[in-house]
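Bug #77: duplicate submission created two jobs. Keeping one. Sequence:
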Amino acid sequence: MEEKIGLSHKIVLHNRDKGNLTGILDVISFDENTIVLDTDMGLLTIKGKDLHVSRLTLDKGEIDIEGRTDSFVYSSNESYRKAGQSFLSRLFK
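Kept job's structure:
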């Protein structure tokens, strides 16, 4: 399991419609209603409406999102990490 040393995981949410997250290792999937992120604290599923990724900087582990945020849910990321494919590697196959 490869983790970036020195990343701190932080979520800042402004009025439920704009957010900034750090400690992001990979983007698993996203659409208008769900964003799934691999973080240094486990998989993070963000649910809402009209969700958009406005900025993504994986080398710094940062992401900015926009849209109506309804929930943040963490879960174990072991099964995803065993699969061994990132979102970007699947996208550019």
